[in-house]
Each structure stands twice: as C-alpha cells, then as structure tokens.
Amino acid sequence: MTKTGSKPPKDRSRGKILFAGVLFALALMGLWARAYYVQVVKGPEYAKMANRQYWASETVSGKRGEIFDRNGLLLAKSIATPSVYVRPNEIKDPWTVSQRLGSILGMSPKGLASKMGPKKRFVWVARKISDAQAEAIKAEMLPGVYLETENSRQYPQGHMAGQLLGFVNMDGHGIEGLEKSFNDLLLPSSTKYTVQKDAAGKRLSSLESGDRSSFNGQDLRLTLDSQVQLATEEALARSVIRAKGKSGMALVVEVPTGDILAWGHYPFFNPNAVKKIRGEWKNRMAVDIFEPGSTMKPIMVAAALQEKVCTPGKEYYCENGKWSVKGRRVKDTHKYENLTVSKIIRYSSNIGAAKIGLELGAAKLNRYLQDLGFGRRTGLPLPGESAGLLNPVSQWKDVELANISFGQGLAVTMLQLADAYLCIANDGVRLPLRLMHEADKPVQGTRVFDSNVAKMVMAMMEEVVQEDGTGTQARIEGVRVAGKTGTAQKASPTGGYGGDYVASFVAIFPADKPRYLVCMMVDEPKAGHYGGVLVAPEVRNIGVQLLNSSGMLAEPVDAMQMAKVSPDRFSAPVKRSEHISVDGEFMPDLQGATVREALEILVARGIVPSVKGQGVIIEKQKPLPGEKWPADKKCQLWLTGQPG
C-alpha cells in the first residue's frame, strides 16, 4: 500500500549555485581590490623599485693623462685595476662573507666583519687588488660583494726621474711632483649615465670605447730625453757612491733652447713603491738650497767685466793665501801672490774673488744677481719651489759682500745656478729653463751680459779645465770643455760653518759652440770634499755620452778603461748589425749596435742598462743574445770604439 501525506525532498542545488556565485564574486572582488592596490595605491612605489632593478645609474670616468719624454717614451700611465666593495644591507651572513674575503685578500675576517654594519650602504673592502684576487672573488659569488674597475697609476721606467714625476694618491689625484703641478690637466673628467640590466643584474648596454676616451685627461710631453736621463742618473750614482756622500743632484740643459734633458736625484725614488720608500720622493732640485761656493765666481766676474771694473789680465794680490776683511779671515787652498782675473777663476782664489767683488760694490753685484734670477723662483711648474736666500742689499757690509763674491752668505737652488750659467753659455742672453716640450715655440731671452763679456768668462772657464786649473778631470780629448769647480762648507745649525761640505761642478760642452750644460752636486761627501776631484770626472762622462750620441765626437775617446771581465761567456765578436731582431721573450743581439740603438730598445722595455767602457759600439752584453729578458731589469753593456 502506498502511504499518503509524505513531503517531497527539497531541491538544494539552487542554494549551492548561489553560494558558489557569491564566493566567486568575492574572490573576483578581492583580485580587483588587489590589482587596484598594486597598480594604483602602490603603483608608483613598485615602478620605482622596478626601475632600480632593471635600470641603474653609473659613473663613468676617463683615464688620467699620460706623461711622455721628448721622444715619446712613456713615463707615466694609468691602467684598469679591480677594487672590491660591499653593500652591508644586502649581506645576511657578514661573518661568512668576511671569512671568505679575508682568505682571498689576506685580511683579518674580524676586521672586515666590523666594517659591515647593517646601517651602512657602501664600504670599500680593498682597492686596486690583483686580477687573480678579483677572479677568486667572482668565483665565490658572495651576495652583497661587488667589484669595481678603477685606474691605477704606473711608472713603466721605474725610478727614472721619479722625484720630478712625483706620484698620485689612491683616488688618482697628484700629490707630488709634476703629477701635482699638472693635476688639473692630467685629471680625467667623469659623468653619470643610466644603463639597463637584465633579471640577473647584468648590464645590457654600455658606453663605447670611443665615448669613454672623451673623458680622458690630457697628455703631457716633457723636454726630458730618456737616454740622457739614463746616463745622468748612472753617473750621479757613481759620483755619490764614490764620494760616500749623503745625496746628489744632476741637471743637463740644452743650451740653445733651455730645454732640460735630464733631472737626476740620488738616492733614486721609484714612484711605483711610495709606501716602501719614504722621504726619497723629495724633489731636492727645486726645494733644497745650498751655498754655491766657487761656482759663484764666474758669475761675479762676469758682472765685474760688464761694469768694466776689471779686465781678464788685471792682477790682484792674493795675500799668500790668508787675508782679513773687517776682522773676518778669508783663506785660499794655496799660497798665491799676484793673480790675473783669469787665474783667479782658474785656480779658484777666494781672496782674489773677494777683492774683485769689493771693487765692484754691493749694489751692482746685487743687481746682476737679481737679473740672473737669484732670490726668485725660476717659474718652472714645480710644487714648493724655493726662491733661494739672497739678503737685501742694505744688509751687505764688506764682510757679506766679500763672502758672496766667492759663493758664501747666499743660498741657491740647482735650477737657479744652472739658469745663471745658461746665460753665460748662451752668449750673455738669459733663457728660461723649460720642462714642457714645445718644439715649435720660439725661444725668447733677455740680454744680461754683452757678448764679448760672456766669451771672456767662457775662456776663463775653459782654462779651468784645459790648463792647470781645478777642473782638469773634466777634459775630453779633442773637445774644448769649459767648467767650474765648487766646494762650499755647509752652515752649522749652531752658527758658523761645520765640517760638512757640498762638492759641485758645472761644465759646458763644447766651449767653442756651447750645446750642453751639465751641473752636478754631491751633498756631504766623506771621501774628500773638492768638486774637481769628486764630481768633475762623472760630469765629464756625461759629456762624453752626450757628444757621442749627438755625433759631435769625430772619434771615440779613451777616458774610461774597459771593464775587466774575465769569463768567456760574456764575450762575443763585435759586428755591425743592420737590423736588430727583438723577440718577445728573448734578449736581442745588441753586439755591433750603437749605444743609441741599444738604449732605444732596452729603455722601451723598462730596462736601464749599466754601461761600461768607452766608445759608441756595443762589444759585449749580459744577458747574452737568446737568453730570456732579465726579470730583475738588470742589463750590462760593454762599449768599444769602432765596429768590426
């Protein structure tokens, strides 16, 4: 039987559909709300974040300008060097990062960790590291650790003219020498630009090399000749070492132009190793002053001749070596009686010079010293250049005038002394010394002495060398050489003069047609103190190499004895080679080549050879041809007179 009155089951499908629709609508509204929040409310902020992720602002700087000698040899350059820095806010585990960096860089992990404070956004870890260290850091892929390319200053020729060139600091700014004087010229410019990056953070665009070069600093070309510089530095080192001196300076000037060809200091200074050698970077040629001693006598005599106070043949009584001026004693090294002005210069008589100076008078002598530049800076672009010491003429009494006449009681720089002698060598016309190579710029000078006065003084200086004067060790066979010795006591800190000396020598090659002026000074020599004995021989050797290289010697001279080298492995037959093969790994055959040819090859590779013997042709060499280039940059050359 069928039951009656039962209710049919309810249909719930409609409610389920409605519930699902509501949930869907709520989800859709949530998505819309989220999209609104992301795109409208947070849109600008997220857009900035995206730009920071895919676009970055970078600073691009050019390279510091390069420095060359007059022949184009590179003396200073900048190279790309990696540096490492961190962004501490991106580092989650500073200790681990510090340990890994410390092991690569040889630094204390504890010290590195202390730098990585979470509030810091940028910290330099190490600047200008090696390429091997940079590659090791790259391989670690440490978060928050970055490499940056900087420019590092390098000096390919080592210590060559190191004090003159100076050096730069870690940021590439010149702080000594020409690097400082010409910092604004050499310094590169920089700019910021935007680059696009991919998801991995790699740049998708960069400046072309041509665009980067437009930010480079300007180059500098000096009047220095690397071959003359090499010869001068070697001769100066020999002179200081032989004299057991404290230090020394040497300057070579081209007479017709005033161009400085060599600027040498000893001990040497290598600007590549500033931290290792402290104090030797001082540019003493410009900043140190010394009493010139007897090298002042030709200058004083030139003033007296110009004023017609005396003539070369006028005689002065030299008091048998002892004389008193207002109670102050003046002495000579020998007992002279009557000496002409020429012989006063030849034998370097202090008494004779003092009498000429007293006859000339303080006002006139002071005027000529002023005209020659004493008491003022030369005007060369040198930081800290000294003006010397020349007291006002109102303070010159007879004693002071007598002392100044033979080179005491005033102080000069080597540059001032060379400038004055350049005037005499250049027929009485004072030329400005030049360090910047400007081949097309006309040379303009100011006449100080008449031509005949300059010639008379040159003739007296020639007697110093060619006759029985104090500079006979500067003679060169077949060449007329003019020169003047200088020996001056150094003032004592407690007053008066002590037991230390300055030994100097000035020479002009050749005397009849002046081409080169060479000045050399040795400070505090212990193996004697006379400039004619300690300094003149090496000034002469510089002159020989200058005249040889310029072709002004018809035949080589035999001033220096050939070095005695017994091992047969160092010997080889001399033969002239039309072409010198320069292999990238092995020493070329320099035997038979001229000194100039050999120096051009060696100096270009940063090698400053030691040259022994006399002549213009390479007879032997070490390392031998075919051996590897010396890692220590040492090379020995022996010279002979003629090619075989």
TrEMBL record:
GO terms for biological process: cell division; cell wall organization. It comes from the Bacteria. Transmembrane segments: none annotated. Its main location: membrane. PROSITE patterns: PASTA. Coiled coil: none annotated. It is found in: Membrane. GO terms for cellular component: plasma membrane. Pfam families: PASTA, PBP_dimer, Transpeptidase. This is Cell division protein FtsI (Penicillin-binding protein 3). One of its GO terms (molecular function) is carboxypeptidase activity. Keywords: Carboxypeptidase, Cell cycle, Cell division, Hydrolase, Membrane, Protease. Residues 581-644 form the PASTA domain.
